[in-house]
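Please review this one:
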Amino acid sequence: MRIDKSIATGHLASAAAYVIFGFNVVVCRDIAIEGGLSPLVLFSMRALVAGALFWLASLFAPREHVPARDLLRLAGAGVLGLLMPQLTFLFAIAHTTPVDLSVMSTTTPIFTMFVAAIFLREPITWKKALGVATSFGGILWLILQSTFGGNGASQTEPIGIAFCFANYIVFALYLGTCRPLIARYSVVTSMKWMFLFSFLLSLPFALPQLAHSDFAAVSAKVWWEIGFMIFFSTFVAYYLVPVGQKRIRPTLVSMYGYLQPIIAIAAAIWSGMDRLTPTKVLAALLVFTGVWVVNRSRAATAR
């Protein structure tokens, strides 16, 4: 069986991005609890540094002309793909546990599938629906057993759940509507403009909070975590997501979001916050089975 290298690259890029996002859940939770910096300040820092890195990278890449109408569209993509998802995530993680937030991310492929069907006319096949349902079943089992099975109650607040779902709906809209625009330009070109616009849009709201932030009180540990969040979770991961977008269907890109809770739980186990159980193994098997089923769908890999 011949493997399409372009599609394989899309799968690897998407998987790597969501592995990073999985670690980012645990890292950002620690930043939110110990850092003392507001979500708007953190986003502005992410957008400024990651945007600067993409503009620096563009100096070594072929120059692409972007007409004014596409610059406006890239500004909109920056709102849907960067500003709103990152802000809602940073607000959500302060009011949820890492496992709860990761588990709720499994709604993203469902939203993406319907958004792609409406805007891109991507067919919803029985095989694709079965794959999404199988993975969702694994994650539902995981949240019932891991999150509520210990002390009978979740530490997640309702406002955290609201921000979580806002995050996944907005990012699903980005994946489902912006693929044609993202495919038109190189990753560096699209990302440098999206980060620039999202930073400029956030700046008027972030400036007062930046002026009153006590950066001297931030510990060295938190600064290292902020460095991970900015470089890996923002620059590297947001380079990889468009690589996946350009090569595989939006629903399949979002399906790799099912890796996020598995990585978050693995990180918790490694740090001694959790332990490996047959329940988690079963959930992981269901998750990867669902990804495999969607991958086998001819519509999912059509370009």
